[in-house]
Amino acid sequence: MKIGFLGLGQMGHAMATRLVEAGHDVTVWNRSPGKDDDLVAAGAARADRPVDAAQGDLVMSMLADDAAVEQVVFGDGGIQRAPALHVGHSTIGVALAERLAAAGHYLSAPVFGRPPAAQAGKLFVVAAGDAALIDRCAPAFEAIGQRTFRVGDAPPAANLVKLSGNFMIMAAVEAMAEAMTLAEKGGVDRHLLLEVLTGTLFGAPVYQNYGAMLVEDRFRPAGFAAPLGLKDMTLADTAATTYGATMPVLGIVRDHLRATIAVEGNDIDWAGAALAVRRASGL
Ligand code: NAP
Questions:
Q1: Claim to verify: residue 18 and residue 132 sit in the same structural domain
Q2: Residue 268 and residue 213 in one domain
Q3: How many helices (H) and strands (E) does the chain have?
């Protein structure tokens, strides 16, 4: 397929690489120069403006936040009226997804999985929008992901699933950090606690992968930077207000992310929210 790719950050670079490796005809664009050199060496074309990457079948975007997506779609050189189908992979808010859907020729397809999963083509794609358009994306989704979930005809549904999932990841980090703090203060090694819990009732990837980061205090370099995680908790909170959902745990994890960013800076992984829990108990 002839595919444009907008945004070559940690996730986007890995996803675009998978598309090139799968043999697609890929044109890449990134705001800052220098992130596409290896992709161009591997056969990708370089676009000067987003719209120049959106002349083929699909244009996939993987950008930081709502402001970045608005800029790349509606700003100068944006893809708004380009012929390619826009597939939005970024984690954005429900309202922006509604606006993109209203403009037409758009699918939401946010992903679960961190950069190593993106490098391995093992993302989970959560797609929503016109079913025939999702069908058309199958070769691209197969290159970047291990499975595509379909969550309906309305694109914002996929964004709501993604925001709900990220809230649950943070809630799991919070629960593990609190339990590990309790164990450690009581003289039990947190590695042992994690071994018992993941070997019994908590064998899910979120506990295994994030649990390993927590017991090793392995938060740098960030695979998913805390400010992006805070962005997602804020977007989830906005959605909660829109739909009238009461989410007290969301407020706790959002504030622990804020506290961690204030103390540690922007370069810490969002799992570093566990540090705020530890500090509150004197660890
Ligand atoms: P990242 O490494 O910080 O990359 C962000 C990308 O957005 C870069 O290409 C950056 O361009 C671009 N960008 C930022 N502001 C822009 C603007 N105003 N105009 C145009 N481009 C702009 O972030 P990431 O970790 O790849 O995350 C990308 C998206 O995927 C986010 O929505 C995130 O929530 C989501 N996500 C991340 C993960 C993860 O584990 N990392 C997993 C699933 C989903 P420059 O190079 O010019 O800065």
A1: yes
A2: yes
A3: 13, 9
Are the CB atoms for 61 and 37 separated by under 8 Å? Answer: no
Q: How confident is the model at residue 104 (pLDDT cuts 50, 70, 90)?
A: confident
Cα-based distances in Å from 245 to 86, 167, 238, 248: 30, 13, 10, 10
CA angle at residue 105 from 153 to 127, to 5 degrees? Answer: 40
**What CATH number does the domain containing 61 carry?**
3.40.50.720
90 lines ligand 1 (CB under 6 A): yes
Last residue of a domain, one of 118, 133, 153: 153
Does the C-beta of 12 come closer than 6 Å to ligand 1? yes
Are 120 and 194 in the same domain?
Answer: no
* Distance in angstroms (rounded) separating the CA atoms of residues 96 and 109: 14
- 169-183 confidence digits (pLDDT tens): 999 999 999 999 999
Distance linking the first and last C-alpha atoms of the chain: 53
Q: Is the pTM of this model over 0.90?
A: yes
Nearest Cα to 208, choosing from 110, 89, 114, 91? 114
pLDDT in tens, 188-233: 999 999 999 999 999 999 999 999 999 999 999 999 999 999 999 9
Q: Please answer whether residues 28 and 37 qualify as being in contact, where contact means their C-beta atoms are separated by less than 8 angstroms.
A: no
Domain residue limits at 118: 2-153
| Residue from 10, 169, 170, 230 whose mutation best tests the ligand 1 pocket (most atoms within 8 A of CB) | 10
Both 123 and 26 in one domain: the answer is yes
Count of domains for the chain: 2
124 and 173, same domain (yes or no) = no
Last residue of a domain, one of 153, 176, 202: 153
Cβ atoms of 186 and 193 within 8 Å: the answer is no
